[in-house]
Amino acid sequence: MDNDNSCDLFVIGAGSGGVRAARISAGLGAKVIVAEGLYLGGTCVNVGCVPKKLYVYGSEFGKAFKDAQGFGWTVDGASFNWPTLRDNKTREISRLNSIYDRLLEGSGAQVISGMAKLIDAQTVEVNGTQYHAKKILLATGSWPTKPEFPGSELAITSNEIFDLDTFPQRLLVVGGGYIATEFACIFNGLGAQVTQLYRGDLFMRGFDNDIRTFAAEEIRKTGVDLRFNSNIVSLSRTREGLEAQLTDGSSIVVDEVLCATGRHPNLAGLGLETTAVKLDDRGYVSADAHFQTDEPSIFALGDMTGGPQLTPVAIEQAMAFAQTQFGDAEKVMDYSFIPTAVFCQPNIGTVGLTEEETKARGIEIDVYLSDFKPMKHTLSGRDERTLMKMIVDKSSDRVIGLHMVGPDAGEICQGMAVAMKAGATKADFDSTVGIHPTAAEEFVTMRTARG
Q1: H-run or E-run covering 131
Q2: Which position among 264, 377, 403, 436 bears the catalytic label?
């Protein structure tokens, strides 16, 4: 095999994790080849975080126009045009794709457009050409899981929702996680009539229960028809639209049905069966703390390994991988105090442990809660409240959980995460001067623990 087809590292997948691993490894002197069969930037840039946040921004204007009236503004004739938002988004994604391409090329990594398949532990085939690699990194991410039910082929996933030809005036969202809840709020904000179904008692499983309950109340206030202990049974096309039969025996007619019921590792056609790579009991690629699989020459990181499915996690994993394999220091990823946000409306932000997790671990805690009407809405007249929650370890006074539902929750919790990662105590928060008037200052003025 000629030298051009040999490398130190072959990366399969040019999403957030794969691109970062390729760039850093190349910068450390490795010869790197990257193959991507779909789009540069992966899910996050193309059909995930980036377009989702742009659509969140777009969906918030409707409420802002109404809020403006309480502040003396007259906003007449405001209307929404779906193709404008959709096409402007597409242009921005194209710009980001080209940036990723330039970043990879600039790092010295070779980029190949095509689906890669493992031939053996050190050989990859793309577009009929085989490449030999000392090490192979799998970074193919995850893919939406669509449940099987009669007529499920008529439903769409988050991959298709961004680019619909026609705006769905009536939307049914099936699911209760980040993606389902964010899209229910987005399309509600853009003017659609939205119904969200979740099969369990309460959506946003894994988040703090106070946050889940509060978020459900606030999202319902915005107009989303949020139905728990409910699911779709079948789907059929009628003259009026798509008719969904539900588990309670009722039916609903809508223009689109979005299934956002989870994601699975993107392994189809990867050729794992030609290697010793193993999957765990959930179907994710099994890898150790250094991202090494059961095949010593093959590594895996990001969503496909079943950890927190968050872009910044994949990026940090990629940094640790590159430094360990090609740098001069072994680096292990630290998964404590990873902040995250759900860009529903109002937003959810969270860092650290939930109250339920502390109880399961037997940690003695103090809980501080604050529930208030945001200052802005004293004039806007909008019926929206904010909830802030702090969980403190009694034995050390360390703040080990911080949760919020309200405007800018993600922005606020990012800063709090730095303090918590550094070991901030409740006394540290109490001695910090607040910025007034802000919502964030509430986290440094909580004085009385919940009884």
Answers
A1: strand 129-138
A2: 436
